[in-house]
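Hi R.,

Here's the input for the 3,4-dihydroxybenzoic acid complex you asked about:
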Amino acid sequence: KAKPRVRQLTASLIQHLHDFARENELTVGEWMTGLELLNEAGRMSDDRRNEGQLVCDVLGLESLVDEITYKLATSAEDEPTATAILGPFWRQDAPQRAMGDTIVTGFEDKGDKTWMHGTVTDFRTGKPVEGAVLDVWHTAPNGLYEQQDEGQPDMNLRGRFTTGKDGKYDFYCLRPVPYPIPFDGPAGKILQALDRHPYRPAHIHFILTAPGYKPIVTQIFDRNSKYIEDDAVFAVKDSLLVDFKPFQGNSKADFELPYDFKLATY
Ligand code: DHB
Ligand code: FE
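And here is the predicted structure with 3,4-dihydroxybenzoic acid in place:
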């Protein structure tokens, strides 16, 4: 079954590459420039940097594939929480933490501590989902993920939380900031060629998994963030916009962020 699919995709890719070359009367020099860009992306990539993915993302390819995948997985009356691209900074084996814990080490003076909480429910029955694992990650106030930043401890601003019978989750994080995707490589060159900026609006990433339910890869976006209309990698969806509310009466948090996740069964 896989083989005919590989054949179809390969043949179609060749067809579109040839059309691209013909339509633009591609020169040898131009082809080599593109080739060098691919090679440079490969050379730059390791387990901390996925330049190939960044290139795909500024081209809008990961967001398009996400859209196609979501459409295939859902129907009109079947609308679980919207998905969004994974991006290049997820890490396997984020620490498992107890409900109510913080994912933050450091940044004590920042004034952007956030208490995020909500319920994971079955979107059709509205019932709470037990045993849902919420894998969360976001950037530090300097705009860097932990693996990009010597100044942060390993696995900072990441965690996995498992829901109990009530489907509820809560944890402490930071209110994220807009930040530029790494633009010192091929992805940056593409942006520059198109006079585009490298910024993404403030966002928090999630992967939700639960026994019997379809996994969801998604992000939520601060509605008031700069670049919300102009994400360098095209990931924003209306239903994923959230409001950070000023929070009084809890010395551990400056903001409160309520958000419920809705999962669909297979
Ligand atoms: C991309 C996605 C992210 O979430 C991020 O933080 C940086 C880059 C991307 O799609 O390339
Ligand atoms: Fe991100």
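One thing worth noting: Residues 54, 57, 62, 85, 87-89, 181, 200, 233 surround 3,4-dihydroxybenzoic acid (ligand 1) (CB under 6 Å).

Cheers,
M.
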